[in-house]
Amino acid sequence: MSFKILVLAKQVPDTRNVGKDAMKSDGTVNRAVLPAIFNPEDLNALEFALRVKEQKEGAEITIITMGPPRAAEIIREGMYRGADKGVLITDRKFAGSDTLATSYALSLAVQKLAPFDMVIAGRQAIDGDTAQVGPQVAEKVNIPQITYAEEFVGFNGDKVQVKRRLERGVEVLESACPVLVTVHSSAAPCRVRNAKRLMKYKHAKTDIELQELSEDYLKLFESRPYLKIMQWSVEDLNADVDLLGLSGSPTKVKTIESVVFTQKESITMSASDADVNKLMKSLISSHVLG
Amino acid sequence: MKKNLFVYCEITEEGHIADVSLELCSKGYKLAKELKVKLEAIVLGSKIDHVVDELTPYGVDTIYLADDKRLFPFLNMPHSRIVSKLLTENEADIVLFGATSIGRDLAPRVASTLRCGLTADCTSLVIGDHYVKKTDTTYKNLLYQIRPAFGGNIVATIINPDMHPQMATVREGVMKKEEVRTKKTPAIIKVDVSKYVEDADFAVAIIDRHIEAQKINIKGAQIIVAGGYGVGSKENFNLLYDLAAAFGGEVGASRAAVDAGFAPHERQVGQTGVTVRPKLYIACGISGAVQHTAGMAQAAQIISINSDPYAPISQLADYNIVGTVEEVIPKMIKYYRQNSK
Questions:
Q1: Pair B114, B252 in one domain
Q2: What span, in angstroms and rounded, lies between the C-alpha atoms of B102 and B115?
């Protein structure tokens, strides 16, 4: 029995290291100038998928990402850690997509890979923090969703049981497959790269990457079909271009401001005993303290 | 065209309307008044007649009540079906959800069904116009959805000019809960649940739940001692707990400190944590990214302890103490005790 798991992952700019030229004038992110990383909660999602796979014989994990050609990096990273296959969705026509347009494109890729049993994604990406794409893919594919997942509890016959994190506790949900799960950062961290897998998959390439390689390399490729990372364009997905990119995105960025505080009248002081003593006296006499 | 403003009201574990929903009703009341439209509330749950009394003081015009034992605890499919259909039937123009584990599960699915835009974790909502030069069109009275973006490094104003309803989620504590003086009694519309959901919508079942009583409540604290990445370590955070204990306050943390494992997530202050309005906020080793300041800028007094006197937080603070937590905090405790005797 095969069991097909699709993992949705995103390569994100590392928002913890942002420079001045990070935003373009149209209000979208200038990804070219930022270090790109595997979105942290998508790594939790990959680990979640690997744990499902361990409990299901014949299970197979395909990692799907949408982005510029360089996003193939995270597919290889996923393969080093245990994913079996990869799909890169890339096309200039996707540029500027908001969550609704992105989920439309991803839902087409998911359906192209049907039949599948589980779709697993990180709860949210650190560049947007919206947590919308997972549920929106589920709606478009018309399958149930379990968000904020913390642990794969196990199989109950054909059904899956998933523990989900709430503000004030946890609950265990049971669903038939196919189901979409979004994984929270409180779930298990992803296992590290496996040395054998690194050797096996380090030459995995997309079509775009292959164009830049020598003849010898292409021969290697023919003898090892698992090295091929599938690459799909708008045409391959048979997508309606009006539903993609800026035209397919109902939300528009009206303005972007970098943050300027209105300066208060503030008092700067040293850490000396005298200064701290004075401050404490003043806070106590003004009843802020005590 | 009805063009009304809707608030999805969450039911707490104790069976009441959640604070975040009442806060959104308060904000919604003002926005609806400005737009001259009605404020309508949607409540889904089991045995919820009493919520009418809870919502009435907030100036709600209409309450849609979907009462069915299968609607509590929250499950995505039945809730998203009912909410999507109600919004479509009633031609909603603006819809607000709490940015909670329920709202953030439900709103995106509803937005996808309605093919409309949704902005997550807004810190401000304002009505305004939008002019498009290319087509010489002015869009009147749009909802400006304002939020820090991109890890809190910028503030973005998002609009949805063409596809409505305009939807937004807002975290608890961001808007102010305010009752309004009104003699108005809301119209109650009972929703015939069986017409809105099918058996297939209950494909996901809850098989176990553990709900804990709320433990840490930094939202209600009058004094907050918060630490950032600059605190340096989990051990150094103990100094903050000491100071909070001395002052009778609570400990908060920035996202960077939570990510680094210095403090648990329940203590996170900021856009993706809680919003606080204490009378004193002591920011220790916090640089002042918008992500964080969005959640504390309204504190009455702010003290920053930072070795960098030019960190962005210094612009916001009333007092800037230039130094490290290791040297400053023990002195604060010492002189507080000396002077308060």
A1: no
A2: 20
Return residues 27-46 of B near A (CB < 8 Å).
Answer: none
Q: At what angle do helices B325-340 and B234-247 cross, to 10 degrees?
A: 20
B186 and B237 in a single domain? The answer is no
pLDDT band at B306 (very low <50, low <70, confident <90, very high): very high
Taking CB atoms and an 8 Å limit, are B153 and A269 in contact across chains? Answer: no
Beta bridge partners of B206: A173
Q: Which domain holds residue B251?
A: 223-340
Q: Do B153 and A145 touch (CB under 8 A)?
A: no
- H or E element at residue B188: strand B187-190
- Give chain B's mean pLDDT: 93
- A279 to B293: CB separation less than 8 angstroms, yes or no: no
Spatial separation of the C-alpha atoms in residues B95 and B24, rounded to whole Å? 10
Torsion from C-alpha of B211, B216, B220, B221, nearest 10 degrees: 170
A127/B151 touch (CB, cutoff 8 Å), yes or no: yes
User: For residue B333, what is the domain's CATH number?
Assistant: 3.40.50.1220
Residue A54 CB neighbour total at 10 angstroms: 11
Model confidence at B271, pLDDT cuts 50, 70, 90, reads confident
Smallest Cβ distance to B112: which of A128, A140, A258?
A140
With CB atoms and an 8 Å threshold, state whether B105 touches A138. Answer: no
Same domain membership, residue B146 and residue B236: no
- For residues B71-85, average pLDDT: 97
The candidate with the shortest Cα–Cα distance to A13, out of A181, A171, A93, A128, is: A128
With 90 as the cut, is the pLDDT of residue B274 above it?
no
ipTM: 0.88
Residue B102 belongs to a domain with what CATH number? Answer: 3.40.50.620
Give A119's strand partners. A6, A180
Structural domain total, chain B: 2
Contacts of B131 in chain A (CB under 8 A): none
Domains and CATH numbers, chain A: 3-243 (3.40.50.620)
Residue A22 pLDDT exceeds 70: no
Angle between helices B103-114 and A99-112 in degrees, nearest 10: 80
